[in-house]
Each structure stands twice: as structure tokens, then as C-alpha cells.
Specification:
This is ABC transporter ATP-binding protein. The chain has helices at about 45-50, 75-80, 95-105, 110-120, 135-150, 165-180, 195-200, 220-225, 270-280, 295-310; strands spanning about 5-15, 20-30, 35, 60-65, 65-70, 80-85, 155-160, 185-190, 205-210, 210-215, 225-235, 250-255, 260-265, 285-295. It is α/β, with parallel strands linked by helices. It folds into 2 domains: about 5-225, 3-Layer(aba) Sandwich (Rossmann fold); about 225-295, Alpha-Beta Plaits. The structure holds adenosine-5'-triphosphate. Adenosine-5'-triphosphate binds near residues 14, 43 and 45.
Length: about 325
């Protein structure tokens, strides 16, 4: 079955000559949350802007709900809401009017019952008559979401929804997104916060230099690229890794009181049993062991670093 968004062989070269996207294809299912990650200038905003009809592609096609975004742009755009990164609100307008106007701009008839539902779901109903300049940063962002939802889109784009906001506000935003997921809205978000993607996304796409490096379910990505770190706490501190254990990828940490060992979770043999045996053979006694899964941040950094190494070769 075709996804709610079907992107096929999409490319964009700006007039300046910059190739911002190269042959990107992906399919997004209804109800999914997809996080797009990539360094600055990777092409994420260009991709979102093309789908939302703000930038014209130089090649390829995009369909939203089966509608081609160029030939059938009106129908495609009706299905889309965009929450931009920058907060731009009319400062002296009441919250409820901002949302009503946006709905009108989409050519939709007034529907105050629906707008009430949206404002309530975003915990803005009590603030409906406040002018936007009186709102906190977190509330303003929620007004942007309310505006983007005002015409009942099926797909919501969030461009760096929590850029520059504090941890408490970020968590609040995650809860809003979780609520939208429960309402069945398909969400595509860009973020520089890896923990955000790890927290919210079903699938993660990594874009670098205009190319989609991969798009995978989060769990699969972590399993495939993830490594585990084993920390072995020692009874007696070591001054150095014994010569017999050199070349085994061990690092002395905690001022010699621990040894860390990185291993591939997919490997047939992790080497842990052998390592513990070899430590015992050296007369090194172990106080405790613990393991830690590498974070998405580490996975992402290693992906981008591999690309840089390939480019340099
Ligand atoms: N209107 C434009 N005209 C010319 N070049 C542009 C334009 N918009 C973006 N670019 C270039 O296209 C490339 C991709 O930019 P884009 O904004 O899509 O990246 P991004 O992944 O969203 O970056 P960031 O994370 O910094 O927002 C960059 O090299 C950028 O300089």
C-alpha cells in the first residue's frame, strides 16, 4: 500500500548552484513519526519545504495522500500542516483569532468546535483570549502547532520544534507530539537533538550532503549500528593495560580502577567471556561489571564520521 507521503528520486539544485538534495526517495506510512537528522546544511529544510510546496524541486516527484504536490497542489497542501522553526505571531492578536485566521487562509469554513478541541488538546484553551505577546515561549510554540492543525491536516511537519528551548519545555513538546500521535497525525520532524529523535520517532532518517543515507526503524538502527560498552571495575587499580592484553581494544578508565571494552552487539562472539578469563589469568580480580548501549548520538556521529573518512580517502 502506498504511504501517505511518497517521495521518489527527489533532487534540488538552487539557482546559486548548490545541490541541496540528490535523488532522495522514501515512503512514510500514515500515523508514523519520522525524525530527520543531519548536520547543518544537510538538506532537511529543503526536503520539508519541497513537500510543503514552498520550494520547487529540480527533479523527482512527491505525492501526499496520493496527490502530486505540483500538479495537484491544492489537494496535497490541504493535507499538510507546517510548524516553522521561527516563532512569527501577530503580537496583539488573541490566540483563538490567530488559529481561526489560519483556518480561513486554508479556505476552510469556520469551525469553532474543532478549534476549541485543538486549543484544549494543546492546553491553550485557558489562554484563548490572551494576546500572543503575553505568552511564554512554550505557549507560543503551541500556538504555532494549533495554527498548523487548524485545517485538520493529516501530516504535520515540525521543523526543529524544540530548538533553543529548555529541558522542561522540550519535554512538554514531546508530550504534545505524543498526543498528536494518539490522534493519528503523521509527523515528520527535523531535530539536532538526538535524544529527541530517540524519544519520539518510530523511524529515523539520516541526511548528509543532500543524500538520504538511511531511513530505518529506530530499534533496528540502534541494533545495527549500536555498540555496547562494558565497564569492568577492578579490585586493585592498574597502572597500565598488561602487555598480554594489548591490542584487545581495552581502555583504562577511572584512574586505573576500571577497564572499558567496546563490543559489537551483533557479533557471534562478543569476546567478553574470554576477556574475563584472561583478566583472571593475569591475576586481576574484578569487583563489578556493567554495560551501556551506545546512544543514538554515538551512532549518528559514527555514521557521519564514516562519510567524512570516505570523502578524505
Ligand atoms: N534559498 C536558497 N538558495 C540557495 N541555497 C540554499 C537555499 N536554501 C538552502 N540552501 C543551501 O542548500 C543546502 C541545504 O540547506 P538546508 O537549509 O536544506 O539544510 P538543513 O539540513 O535544513 O540545515 P540546518 O540544520 O542548518 O537547518 C545548504 O548548502 C544551503 O546553504
Amino acid at each position: 500500500m502506498a504511504g501517505i507521503i511518497e517521495i521518489d528520486d527527489l533532487s534540488k539544485q538552487y539557482g546559486s548552484g548548490t545541490k541541496a538534495l540528490s535523488n532522495v526517495s522514501m515512503s512514510i506510512e500514515e500515523g508514523e513519526i519520522v525524525a530527520l537528522l543531519g548536520p547543518n546544511g544537510a538538506g532537511k529544510t529543503t526536503l520539508i519545504s519541497i513537500i510543503c510546496g514552498l520550494v520547487v524541486p529540480t527533479g523527482g516527484t512527491v505525492r501526499v495522500g496520493g496527490h502530486d504536490i505540483r500538479r495537484d497542489w491544492r489537494a496535497a497542501r490541504r493535507l499538510i500542516g507546517l510548524v516553522p522553526q521561527e516563532i512569527a505571531l501577530e503580537p496583539f492578536e488573541k490566540v483563538i483569532n490567530c488559529v481561526r485566521f489560519t483556518r480561513g487562509l486554508y479556505g476552510q469554513p469556520p469551525d469553532d468546535a474543532y478549534i476549541e478541541q485543538v486549543l484544549r488538546s494543546l492546553a491553550l484553551w485557558d489562554k484563548r483570549n490572551a494576546v500572543t505577546k503575553e505568552l511564554s515561549g512554550g505557549m507560543k510554540r503551541r500556538v504555532l502547532i494549533a495554527k498548523a492543525l487548524s485545517h485538520r491536516p493529516k501530516v504535520l511537519f515540525l521543523d526543529e520544534p524544540t530548538a533553543g528551548v529548555d529541558v522542561a519545555l522540550r519535554r512538554e513538546m514531546w508530550q504534545v507530539v505524543e498526543q498528536l500521535r494518539r490522534d493519528g497525525v503523521t509527523i515528520i520532524l527535523t531535530t539536532h537533538y538526538l535524544e529527541e529523535a530517540e524519544e519520539m520517532a518510530d523511524r529515523i532518517g539520516v541526511i548528509d550532503k543532500g543524500q538520504l543515507l538511511l531511513i530505518k526503524p529506530k530499534a533496528e538502527l540502534m541494533g545495527e549500528f549500536g555498540r555496547k560498552h562494558l565497564t569492568i571495575e577492578l579490585d586493585v587499580p592498574l597502572a597500565a593495560i598488561p602487555a598480554d592484553l594489548a591490542g584487545r581494544g581495552l581502555t583504562l578508565t577511572q584512574g586505573g580502577r576500571a577497564v572499558t571494552y567496546d563490543y559489537d552487539t551483533r557479533a557471534a562472539r562478543t569476546g567478553i567471556a574470554r576477556l574475563l578469563g584472561d583478566l583472571a589469568a593475569q591475576g586481576i580480580t574484578v569487583r563489578d561489571v556493567s554495560t551501556k548501549q551506545s546512544s543514538l548520538e554515538e551512532v549518528f556521529m559514527s555514521l557521519i564520521a564514516d562519510r567524512k573518512a570516505e570523502d578524505a580517502a
